[in-house]
Amino acid sequence: MKLRLRCVAALVLLPALAAAQYLEEFEKRVTEFTLANGMHFIVAERHQAPVVSFHAYVNAGAVNDPNGKTGLAHMFEHMIGKGTIEVGTRNWPEEKKALERVEAIYDELEMERRKGKQADAGRIEALEKELQAAMKKANSYVVQNEFPRVVEQNGGVGFNAGTGMDSTQYFYSLPANRVELWFLLQSEWFLQPVYREFYKERDVVREERRMRIESSPQGKLYEAFLGAAFIAHPYKTAIGWASDIEHLRAKDAAWFHKTYYVPSNITIAIVGDVDPGRMRELAEKYYGRIPAGPPPPPVITVEPEQYGERRVTVESPAQPMLMIGYKRPNQTDPDDPVFDVLSGVLASGRTGMIYKELVRDKKIALAAGSAAAFPAGKYPTLFLLYAVPNVGHTVEENEKALYDIIERLKKEKVDEETLKRVKTKVRAGVIRGLDSNPGLASQLAFYHAAYGDWRMLFKTIDIIDRVTADDIQRVVRKYFVPKHRTVAYHVKPTAEAGEEGAK
Amino acid sequence: MRRAAIGFLMVSALAWGQQAAKLPTLEELQFPPLRQVELPEVETFTLANGMKVYLLEDHELPLVGGFALVRTGNLFEPPDKVGLASITGEVMRTGGTKEKTGDEIDEELENIAASVESSIGETSGTVGFNCLKENTDEVLAVFKAILTAPEFRQEKIDLAKTQYRSLIARRNDEPGGIARREFSEILYGRDTPYGRRMEYEHLDNIEREDLVAFHRRYYFPKNVMLAIQGDFDAAEMKAKLEELFSDWTVEQPPVPEFPKVTAKPAPGVYLAVKEDVNQTFLRMGHLDGMLKDPDYPALEVMADILGGGFSSRLFKKIRTELGYAYGIGAFWGANYNHPGIFGIGGSTKSGSTVATIRATLEEVKKIRSEEVAPEELKTAKDKVLNSFVFNFDSPGKTLRRLVRYDYYGYPKDFIFRYQKAVAAVTVADVLRVAKQYIKPEEFTIVTVGNPKEFDEPLESLGLPVKEIDLTIPEPKREKAETSAESLARGKELLGKLQAAVGGAAKLAGVKDATRVTQVTIQTPQGGMQVNQVNQWLAPAYFRQEQVLPFGKITVFFDGKAGWLAGPQGTQPMPPPVVRQVRNALLRNPFRLWLADRQEGWTVNAVDERTLEVSDETGESLRLEIDPETGMPVKQTYRSVTMRGAPSEMVETFSDWREVDGIRLPFRAETTRDGKPYAELVVKEIRLNTGLQPEELAKKP
């Protein structure tokens, strides 16, 4: 076994080889299949140790949140911890009834509240009490956190999920002998999730928003920045607005599941010490039972043309940070790889232009850099520049220094050595990514979902290789214009400036 | 061929699927035994120069990587140079070698997608590298040069210090970070090597020669362990290393033991006030023990049941049942060679702060008074035992573990002993260790948040509440040299000033002063008007009333302490405001212009027109005087701040008018770090109106 692997590796990964050759060798370890219901599986064998990583990539995220229900994709994701009709309950039929009762009372309460001034305060109070009692009753059937407990008890590690703008992902790893547990639990949950303890979990999500956004200077800036850059497109927020979160209902989550969690919208990658034939057998057995569904509706809203620079400030006593975003097309645009290379030129390692100028030479920033596609890439998005000014230096200085770099890129072409360095690093990055089961699983699933083919993970190398200095100059000139720019930064609060100066 | 095989599989699977309509339940699932893990073989040997080497062949990918582990750490820093170890570790790499600057090395390594990085932490230093197989030789050469002969170029020392200054300035920005830091420093003791923190002043004290000496003392072959893993032949690598390091033969006396932890328990509730947050970040616990303690496995199981992961008691109670927190957990943070921290941490909305603390303490009480359920114990043990294989899922983990065990003097099979011990833990053990090792009466409880929005005052927990001063200490201003001569000239210059403004006797006759002003402060949103009334009564009573756009603020200070009253009520004067008021008292003309009569103050001449005045606490300012007229021109002082570096404030006087025979400025313009900041226009000054302490101390 070891000998075979050694041969494969030596062949596959000599860095001078073209991507096609890496791909050919790696492909021998990959098995791919689509179930009749449309769910797609990618299985990559890696027999170094008897462990397996699973990664389920649902091609729906915060962008799919309906108006007035931002945060819904994320809220639904939290339900993974609540279990299934088998795991997490003492008595499902009774619990089901109790949950339905909660919803019925909540409906009545909402109706009464909608009457506004005409609402009957006494009735609202009575319904609220009733609702509390109904929730208490429903909770009495719950075996708390049983689902994650079972995973952890079976040696599952890294149990987690994440909701992004474009996707929702569920992942963990298991010892190789227990793979069937993942098939059973995850398929059962995809088939029929349960909205157990939904409203307590809503409080938890509300706390998460307080922690990530409302109590964090950085979080507040992030939210203000996206809110200004996107006036219509749902890239405005992923975690959702506080008021929306506080009104989310279990039926909203159920609607989200029914609409977006159809098998054809889900990609699963399995990487590790597995037999692909057996994986296929188990996939058919457990996931084959999920009924096919219609393709989910697309996001209709397209961000309208931006007609001028947008500047937004966040008052904070904290030391300031700066974010600058330029509108750019999405990840399937032919210019997408050019943005990737550009970001490498600007901000990769200690040789990126931004690091060298702002951090190393001018010493005006503690940290500074860029991101090629922010906050995500499925829809037209932003090329991000950011800077964390050093003490004694201002946001303005940093902003100007960043524009100087951009203007220089419009005038002068990137030299060949720099270009080659960036490309070499991309290639090495792909290789280094191959030695982690969870990392590889996440990559394979993403490339399939985003580009329709996991092979893009390798093909990227060739695509990146074709980017020229002319391409970079053309792209910077075309997209990096003040009119399409959004700038966000912290300023001192009015109140504090007063207090301090006055004494 | 492949396709045909897949087609066949699909058919068979479908057929099978139809037969097995009923899927197994969780209980019915059967798992085969796990395949045996093969432990990779690590070759160890010692080079002629005394450096111990660990080699592990791993041919999966064409990569080579490794690290040198060095017995050093920030525990060995002098207390007035906190940060020396970190800066040394960093500049070893960025400051380059004799042949190449750090910047040249950056380009060279990144051109081949390789890296060499160096750092020094609490109890070790590391220099690591990673590269594609074909670049092994050139990258090893750079690695060796950085490990053995770094050049410490001054520009990179300056860069590192600049960066650390910014980190200090930013350390009070994120509340979670404040909670972690304060908790750890209080537990280990702020004046011990484990609990001290870097300040501006320390950075000022660190020079290149300190870095050179620190490196020389700890980086010698017998004090280094070198581990390399990857796509190479071990025999060839061994020969290569012998050759490469043959000329590195420096010797130093053995490195002493790390200092012992000397902290005493610091029970109570500690509060750091952050008004720009709506959540409270909590940490509570005390110091615990080491990994080698015989009870460590049982403690780890106990802490897991209490607060490890999704299925723990705290997670269930605080998050799932009460919905109070997104994150909540407990950890038994044992270290290899000194006590770690047993802590519980999380964050909750301001309005459930005390409720969360109470509910948490209740869970602590419970685990100390009742045996855990057998199922809880089984879950906790199974978690460790069933996931044990993940300790061996990459050869690198085995290598790193082996080196770490050797470094700290642990047996090679420590992890297997741990596995065995976990398997043997009983419910009685869990209760015993919870009772024996968790000491709620010694809990340090750190809260970072906005107490105005708390559900109940922290005092209601029945424990002493201490406020944490988040003020960032300013670097001691470099004071001008003093000599008998400069002090004499200072006195002379001050005398000139006293004569010019109306005479020392007149000044000494002022016992109280009331000043009504209008201040315009520059803010990013434009100028903001503030109306102020300042009152001073000798020796150091101070009251200020000011009307801001959002309401009225009154402060009172009696020379030692005071209070602050605003739209949200009255509170004891917080430490940063005390400092601001002390600073204002230093600038008070009836004190400052008579600096030669104040006890404990010094007046020194910096040059023929500048005085440096320091008060009894060491607080100082510079006063510029027109040598022709003796009139004050401007004064320079540092602002007091909780974040950021202190700013340099320069106040320039004009519009001199006489009040009761004393000339006083009726206009002042202040710049902050060279930029216009505030304009002050005096409406009225009244002297000796007979102010009384009780009058000034009256709450609004």
Task: Please outline what is shown here.
With about 500 residues, chain A is α+β, with helices and mostly antiparallel strands.
Please provide a written account of the structure.
The complex is a heterodimer of chains A (503) and B (700). By secondary structure, chain A is an alpha+beta fold. In chain A, the strands form two sheets. In chain A, strands 1-2-6-3-5-4 form a six-stranded mixed beta sheet, sandwiched between helices. Chain A has helices at residues 2-12, 19-27, 72-78, 92-114, 121-139, 146-153, 179-191, 198-214, 217-229, 242-247, 250-260, 276-287, 336-347, 353-361, 395-411, 416-432, 437-451, 456-465, 469-479, 494-502, and strands at residues 30-34, 40-45, 51-58, 157-163, 168-175, 266-272, 310-315, 322-328, 365-374, 381-389, 485-491. In chain A, helix 3 (72-78) packs across helix 11. Chain A folds into two domains: 56-167 and 177-260, Metalloenzyme, LuxS/M16 peptidase-like (Cytochrome Bc1 Complex, Chain A, domain 1, 2-Layer Sandwich), CATH 3.30.830; 310-502, Cytochrome Bc1 Complex, Chain A, domain 1 (2-Layer Sandwich), CATH 3.30.830.10. Chain A is globular. In chain A, strand 4 (157-163) and strand 5 form a beta hairpin. Chain B has 700 residues and is of the alpha+beta class. Chain B has three domains: 43-173 and 195-244, Cytochrome Bc1 Complex, Chain A, domain 1, CATH 3.30.830; 268-395 and 404-467, Metalloenzyme, LuxS/M16 peptidase-like (Cytochrome Bc1 Complex, Chain A, domain 1), CATH 3.30.830; 484-696, outer membrane lipoprotein receptor (LolB), chain A (Clam), CATH 2.50.20.10. Chain B is 34% helix and 27% strand. Chain B has 21 helices and 25 strands. In chain B, the strands form three sheets. Chain B has a 13-stranded antiparallel beta sheet with strand order 18-17-16-15-14-13-25-24-23-22-21-20-19, with helices on one face. In chain B, strands 1-2-6-3-5-4 form a six-stranded mixed beta sheet, sandwiched between helices. In chain B, strands 9-10-8-11-7-12 form a six-stranded mixed beta sheet, sandwiched between helices. In chain B, strand 1 (43-46) and strand 2 form a beta hairpin. The longest helix of chain B has 18 residues, at 2-19. The radius of gyration of chain B is 33 Å and the shape is globular. Residues 1-20 of chain B have low confidence and may be disordered. Chains A and B meet through helix 1, helix 6, helix 7, helix 8 and helix 12 of A and helix 1, helix 3, helix 5, helix 11 and strand 9 of B.
